[in-house]
């Protein structure tokens, strides 16, 4: 089994900054450092999010915030649908033994509701 190489944050930052500066192309950097292009693009994405002890770019920060809000909207939508279905099911249930309990309807004294004195 092949050993997995480890790269320091400083090395990753240096390679990505060289890519972003335009000094070297992606292919040149990959050949020089013996890394895959997908790894380099992964590092570039991490760099834009501030994972290499650098300031995240405003664009990446906004994308992270949008993704977080989309997850929240999805969660709330699922909860809302669940509650709607539960309410519909409870309203459609047939009354048991012919007895119904009206929501918000006060009990009359003849029905035997309340405490007796």
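Sequence proposed for the structure above (117 residues):
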């Amino acid at each position: 089994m092949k050993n997995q190489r480890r790269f320091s944050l400083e090395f990753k930052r240096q390679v990505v900054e060289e890519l972003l500066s335009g000094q070297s192309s992606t292919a040149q950097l990959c050949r020089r450092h013996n890394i895959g292009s997908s790894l380099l693009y992964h590092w570039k994405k991490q760099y834009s999010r501030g994972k290499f002890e650098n300031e995240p770019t405003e664009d990446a920060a906004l994308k992270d915030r949008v993704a977080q809000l989309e997850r929240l909207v999805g969660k709330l939508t699922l909860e809302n649908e669940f509650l709607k279905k539960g309410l519909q099911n409870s309203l459609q249930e047939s009354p048991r033994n012919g007895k119904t309990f009206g929501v918000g309807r006060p009990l009359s004294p003849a029905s035997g509701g309340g405490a007796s004195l």
